[in-house]
Each structure stands twice: as structure tokens, then as C-alpha cells.
Amino acid sequence: xxxxxxxWDEIHKNIPQDLERHSQYAEVCERIFPRSSTICxxxxxxxxxxxYFIENGHNVIILDISSYALKHATQLAKNNNVSKKLVVxxxxxxxxxxxxxxxxxxxxxxxIGFNYFPYNETRALLAEVYxxxxxxxxxxxxxxxxxxxxxxxxxxxxxxxxxxxxxxEGEQIRSRFTKTQxxxxxxxxxxxxxxxxxxxxxxxxxxDEFMKASKQALCLNEVKFKKI
Length: 228
Description:
- The chain is α/β, with parallel strands linked by helices.
- The chain has one domain (about 5-145, about 180-225): 3-Layer(aba) Sandwich (Rossmann fold), CATH 3.40.50.
- Helices cover about 30% and strands about 30% of the residues.
- Strand 2 (about 60-65), helix 4 and strand 3 (about 85-90) form a beta-alpha-beta unit.
- The longest helix has 14 residues, at about 120-130.
- The mean pLDDT is about 90.
């Protein structure tokens, strides 16, 4: 529902030029990545976060449903003479499987790419993240948080609630899982070392196609865990 490639192609085509840059969340996470990592950027979109990681010495695999976004990311890499550092793969996350081998990446990164699925599908994707991480590899996954009361109250008042904190707006599913729900998913998967903490992303302009133009911050829940 609502996760078709053509829809996401149109979203990416219409992102304003002043949003064509890497995210603040990518900056914060990259500082603590192991050097020269192989990073899987889930729902990496147009590739700006990936380019930032590559500029800092990493190799990146982008998984995304949008063919347009992947072509854009590929062209960015070509323009910057770093094509050998980037791999792109089309992936529909609603299939709950990631097209990578077990224990194949050092880092999994995702910024608000998992906010379009119900509880069980989200948990399955987190389990897939754990599967593809190398031993001692780490995941950094940012979810939109219900702590953004304006956003949350809008969804409560104007959409159909499919399940607890999962809403249907038109043809699109939007989740706003609480810290407790995310911790429960990780526990159910059997992940031992994890944290779920609030993260506030602030900029003059935030790269989020669904935010109101007047908003200057994203309230996120950051999920971090380690492969043992």
C-alpha cells in the first residue's frame, strides 16, 4: 500500500533544490562510524547522505524502491568521480527482505526510511538489518517519533489508525512508534545490545518531503544496536 516505485519517483523528482544536501543525522552518525566502513544506506533516496559518507572514506550500498532516486545517486557518484565507491540496488522493503548476504556490511544507516510499515513488517526489517551486519557491526536507524505532537495529533485526527501508532493517510502507511514499541521489537528479535533514544534534527531547512514548510525540527527516535 502506497510504497510503489512510481509514487516515490515523483516524490524525489519534486524535492526542492535547496534540500539537495546530506542530512544532519548523517553528520552525527558518521563521526562514530568505524573508518573505511562498508555502509548500507536503507531508503537512501537521491544519494546525498551516501555522498557524504563516501567523502569521508567509506563505501556505500544504497537500497531504495525508487529507480529515479537510484539513477540520481549513481549520477552524483559519477560526477564526483567516486562511482567505484557506490553500489545501488532497487529494493521494495514491503517484501521484508534485504537483497544482501549475511554478515556483509559494517554499518546499516537509515534516516526515516522505516516509517511506512506496520509493527510486524518493521520488526521483520529490523531482523534483516541484524542479519546483514557483520559481527560487531552496528545499526543507526532513525524513526519519526510521536513526540512531535503537531504531527502526531494531525495523524490521529485525520487518518485511519490501522493499529497502535500506525496510520493510513490516503494510500500511504505512516508509523509513529514509541520508544517502548521499538524496544519491544528489538527484544522480540532477540537483539541483546541496543538503545532507543530521542534525537532532534534541527536545520534552517530539513530534508523531509512530508514536513510542513514552517517546521524547523524533526523529532526522531534513534535505534542503535550491535551485531554479536
